[in-house]
Amino acid sequence: MYTEKVMDHFEHPRNVGEIENASGTGTVGNAKCGDIMRIYLDIDDDQIIRDVKFKTFGCGAAVATSSMATELIKGKSVQEAMAVTNKAVCEALDGLPPVKVHCSLLAEEAIHAALWDYATKHGIEISGLQKPKSDIGEEEVEEDY
Ligand code: FES
Description:
binds FE2/S2 (inorganic) cluster; alpha+beta; 3 strands
């Protein structure tokens, strides 16, 4: 059901942890399953992502996609990181089962939320970046179950 790459990143997730005094952090949640992800970015003066760490309280697919997403954005510029969409992450993992594709959205949203945090703190504009809608602090609890 899962590709070898997904299993590898699930069993040996890269870049797990946190960064003290991170340049930007983003926390997002999936209201349906309750899974939560936080991303920490260390960005230098040239807007290059020097380090990235994540913590995921979530399913295996969420762990694997966050792990791959952190690998894909490490060493990239903040603008290049915008191209790391959930689709790009899924492709890098050789695909996810269709019912699990939504899990990969958490990684993309968490990266965007962390970039937004960085951009607002530093007065920088990142083209194409929008205010995160599912910041966990503001999230409304769905009551449909
Ligand atoms: Fe919640 Fe995968 S089931 S992120």
